Each structure stands twice: as C-alpha cells, then as structure tokens.
Amino acid sequence: KTITRDLSLSNLTSRYVDYGESIRDTCFVSLELKAMAAVCMAVSLCGLVGNGLVLGFLGCHMKQNSSTTYILYLAIADFCMLLLFLLLMLAVLNFSLFCLYDFISLYSKVVLAVDILCQYFQLSSLAFLTAVSVEQCLAVF
C-alpha cells in the first residue's frame, strides 16, 4: 500500500495561539466606533425632536380617539427607545474617559440593562404598529 498525505498540512502546530495577547489597552475605543456613536446620537436627537412634537401635538392639541391613542403610545415607546439609544451611545463615548477597572463590571451591567429596555420598547412599538394596522383594516370592513 502507498500512503499519501497532503504536505501543505505538515507545518501546522498543535499549540494554541492567542492573537489578542498584543492588545494591552482594554479601554481603547476605536475611531470608527466613536464615529458610529456620533452618527447614532445625531439620528437619535432628530428622532427625539420629532417624537416630542408628535407627543405635544397628540397629547395636548387633539381630541382623543382610538387611532390617536395608539399613535400616542407608539410615539411614547419610540421616544423612550431613542432616549435609551442616546444614553447608550453617550456611555460608549464616555467609556474611554472613565475606564477604571472598578467600573467595568458596573458599566457592563448598565449596558445590559439599557439593551434589555431598548428591546422592550422596540417590541412594544412594533405591537402598537400592529394594533394600528389591525384597527385600520377592521375599519375598512
């Protein structure tokens, strides 16, 4: 019998190589992440202004019916979600300033809590959109 083997695989090592060992600064926030956080903050601020106008208009100046109530609740959920996104992006930008090893665990817990709240408000806004759509479809019939 002839045993053949692929010679290109003969130079592999069985040793584990950690490519992250050259990273010394755990508090480094890249420039791309800072730029993305700034763009997200600008979009969040525009959305907060728009939802604030909707809240002011529907909450104070319009007669309440079922459609306007759903839209008002949708604007409240979107306003809260955008406010949490803004706070999360501020936390990302300030992470490099307050990077003390005592605060990293607290920072990760705060980011997790804000993330869960953002998901809650996003799902509730989707539920309000569904309710508005169903109501409008039933109004046609």
Short description:
This is MRGX1 protein. The protein has 141 residues and is mainly α. Helices cover 68% and strands 0% of the residues.
Beta-sheet strand percentage? under 5%
Q: Which outline best applies?
A: elongated
Largest sheet: none
**How many domains make up the coordinates?**
1
State the share of residues found in helices, binned by percent: 55-70%
Give the strand tally. Answer: 0
Task: Give the topology string: H per helix, E per strand.
Answer: HHH
Radius of gyration: 25 Å
* Category from helices, strands and their pairing: mainly alpha
> What's the total helix number?
3
The stretches of 5 or more residues where confidence is low (pLDDT under 50) are none
Query: What is the terminal separation in angstroms?
Result: 80 Å
Compute the average pLDDT: 78
Task: Describe what you observe in this structure.
GO terms for molecular function: G protein-coupled receptor activity. This is MRGX1 protein. It is found in: Cell membrane. Residues 50-141 form the G-protein coupled receptors family 1 profile domain. The structure is a single chain. The chain has 141 residues and is mainly alpha-helical. 68% of the residues lie in helices and 0% in strands. It has one domain (37-140). The protein has 3 helices and no strands. The model has no long low-confidence stretch (mean pLDDT 78).
